[in-house]
Amino acid sequence: MINYLKSEQYRLVRKNTLHITSLVCLLLIGAAATVLYYSQKADPNFPYVTTRFFYSNVIGSGGLIIIVSFLYNFSLTGKDTALLKNAVSFGISRNTIFWSKLLLTLSYFLLICVFGIGLMIGLGETLMTSDSQSVKDFLTALVNMLPIVFSAFFLIHSLKMLKVGEVYIFILMLLIFVFSGDLLRILFRPFTSLHEVYKYAPDTLLHENLLNFMNHTVQFGYQHWITGVLLSLITLLIGVTKFAKQPID
């Protein structure tokens, strides 16, 4: 497995899309901070040059983060079936292929996330009005987002490894991470005992997390971890099982 990891890492770091995506993400963070800073210079009464508003752009951008995670995962799960066939023919197990690609893409995704968070905090605390709790609340809100973002990453990885088309992946991600709360609320409306189920939907939890952050009331939410861990386990179990049986053309 170590040799396969090294070969996949070699391929990954030479992917232009990986570096372009990383650079664009960091530039967007810098651009957002710059726009807010100079908006205050132009208008001293501009009310949004605060760390809390700046950080809320990340807390409220779960969908954008999931899109970025798709681009990172795609760098090793794109149209390289010929390479998969070669790996299998050389005796590399499908489990090794599945988990190696996941481990590498997730590691690089987390690396750019950590770097981006550090950049945001550095810019926010340097250029903007800060309250004493904003960084702590920001990190708490990020911890709440983490399992849901992970579950989205694992779902994307599993679907890509199973050669599901990008359009179908996009539709499924919308259903689960954007509309699931409303769908569950409608679906279970006739059942009194299930009225609260929608509160555990990913989009409901992400929206609540944002509201709590803006209202200075954010705290660790076990519901986020219940939903995220369950989705992750189901996704990975189905993904690795089906990939082990899937023919590689």
Automatic annotation (TrEMBL):
What are the UniProt keywords, alphabetically?
A: Membrane, Transmembrane, Transmembrane helix
Q: Where are the transmembrane segments?
A: 20-38, 53-74, 102-123, 138-156, 168-188, 222-244
Keyword Signal found: no
Q: What protein name applies here?
A: ABC-2 type transport system permease protein
